[in-house]
Amino acid sequence: MSVAVKILRTANAPNTAPDETETSVAQALLDLETNVPELKSELRPLQISAAREVDVRGGKKAIVVFVPFPQLKAFHKVQQRLTRELEKKFSDRHVVFVAQRRILGKPTRNSRTKQKRPRSRTLTQVHEKILEDLVFPTEIIGKRTRVATDGSKLLKVYVQQFASVVVAYGLHRILDPKDATSLEYKLDSFSSVYRRLTGKDVVFEFPTSQE
After folding, report:
1. What value does the mean pLDDT take over residues 188-205?
2. Model's pTM, two decimal places?
């Protein structure tokens, strides 16, 4: 079976021929579908829309696998097992999954279409969803933003069973501590991928103190 069947170029995916990274990921999915019986039926209909490598702090790399948005829920059903299997195959790289979403700009007076822009297609909402995709199946339980002392605001958010933590500069996301053991080694990858996709700095951390 050709790796081409595992690659579906959605409307906002690259329109170029699959590169080496995309071909390698597609081949890995085919291999798992063929050789891991308990994944076969779940993986058969799944495809990727793109994949790219991202440099991570410390000289490491991560692979971002973009999946067609309609297939995201199906990927979620097997994502934990699939991530483990792919990270075995790409042993020097972390693997993360992100849905291929489309951002629509604000309508202007001269816009041809008068249809209201869906909230899910706004820049802010797409960036929020990328955060959720990166840490799945962990849920983000708090967030806050602090800007430098030039008239900007300090926002504090209290999370379940935890006090507010000292805020550092930039955008922060607080991850549920129950997942600390399994996710801590990937936090730098999450930050690097988010910056590459959005141009924004983000620090992921686990709450460590309680009131």
Report:
1. 85
2. 0.79
